Model the fold of this input.
Amino acid sequence: MSHHIPTTSSYFTYVPKNMYFPCSYVAATQFSTMGEVVDSSAFIQSPEHRPKPTGTLEAEGIPLIDLSALNSSNSDAIASLVAEIGDACEKWGFFQVINHGVPLECREKIDAVSRKFFGQSMEEKMRVRRDELNPMGYYDGEHTKNVRDWKEVFDFVVEVPTVIPASPAPGDKELTMLHNQWPEFPPNFRDACEEYTRETEKLSYKLLELISLSLGLPASRFNNFFKKDQTSFLRLNYYPRCPIPHLALGVGHHKDAGGLTVLAQDDVGGLEVKRKTDGEWIRVKPTPDAYIVNVGDIIQVWSNDKYESVEHRVTVNSERDRFSIPFFFNPAHYTVLEPVAELVNEENPAKYKAFNWGKFVSARNLSNFKKLHTENIQIYHFRKSDSFETLAEEIRDACKNWGFFQVINHGVPLEKREKLELASRKFFAQSTEEKLKVRRDEVNPQGYYDSEVTKNVRDWKEVFDMMVKNPTVIPASHEAGDNGLKEVVNRWPEYPSELREAFEEYAEEMEKLAHKLLEITELRLESEPIKWLLQRPYQLHQAQSLSTLSNPSPSFGRYTTQGCWSLNHPCTR
Ligand SMILES: O=C(O)CCC(=O)C(=O)O
Ligand SMILES: [Fe+2]
Done:
């Protein structure tokens, strides 16, 4: 049974009722017994987020830390453990622990009941589904970064009831209470869950103390934020076998928002961590009876970015079901988060503004429930002005006052730009006869052209145009009533042979830069999202000013331009 304070403004009320039983997912997850996937489009990750077809590296580097020193009174052993933890938090944000003190039987028990619970019919599981007012219980429609996860979950809170704000609105003081729902089957489900929770909570305090010491703070510096009214919860994750493991993820890339996560994974594997040194996805090797620990956004803020909350995701596979159990160790909802005073000074000023944990959670919960069109709230939105905010401000001013600006330290590798420049010079230096072999025509406007007209006067230039999306689909004509479409394909000259590769590499970089600029502006505008622009085809022109990436959309929020962004290189020929 669920109990709650009835509210009219609860932030869960917007969730449409019918989303709890999407038959496509039922068909898809039961594909082994029920046949084919009916519609799995909600699960499809965009190409850059899909698992690598070649498979992921298995990490040797993610530290495996032995906690047995905690049972000794040897201060040297403890000091070296603290150093090891600090090092792992700084370099990886992730580590595994052994000799952690959680009895193996206790883990085996919860693992067994979890498998039994998820093994039931959908109808049975739906009896304890989470609903609009209470997000605890069974759920199969979670979205991470607006793409649906290939998983089913069962959530329960540690503190009963758990109190959180009813809405993310800063002025709204209303609170809501979260209660657990327990299934009838398997009969020892609740006991196993509660016993396991007590043990992982003990481990979490130990880890929190070690982390605190590693930051040079008293061991119990953070304990009081959790001791009363914690908002911690446990999750049972079930990742069914997936017929499209190359396109979907069990959990999309994300960072954990809370304090610490202590995770038990089974022997199937699938958790991948983004390595800080090079951004490569690294698989966390399943290690019997180990727990995987990662610092969440809260510790990132407390430590003023010394320990970063690291991105991770879960891949799925078509052979075996996978189960995992994260414990999310979170403070009381009224906790005000900001870098701890002991760690900030003039040389290292606070990088975050103070913010309320409960409001952050309730804004986050909104986006976990369904596909939203805005970016989910992230802790970097609370970064202080010296970095992100000032940048956004500067861009806004430039857009308003000039409509033009130049960027440096943009992340586009100089070699790529030089490679394309060189190929471009080689192409244009050829005879007109050669160049006309790839001239554009009325059917296909891509390719070489030397008689472009701007405002009815011919330009003193030659151009070569290419589309980023090849082919690109555009309307067949300008006629209002004509809904016909046509495909536009790139033309590639034989010489220089490297032009195509140089262009494609460069286009990829331009696209990344355009995304960055859009994101910053989108946040700044605090308005309706403009990500839809990115769904549209856009063009990359190669002209005498070398390159332009533009979007044929006519307007851009408050700033009206021909395209969305034009990325121009100020180089001359
Ligand atoms: O299942 C896993 O290995 C990790 C799950 C996870 O990252 C999460 O639920 O936040
Ligand atoms: Fe996570």
Observations:
- The radius of gyration is 27 Å.
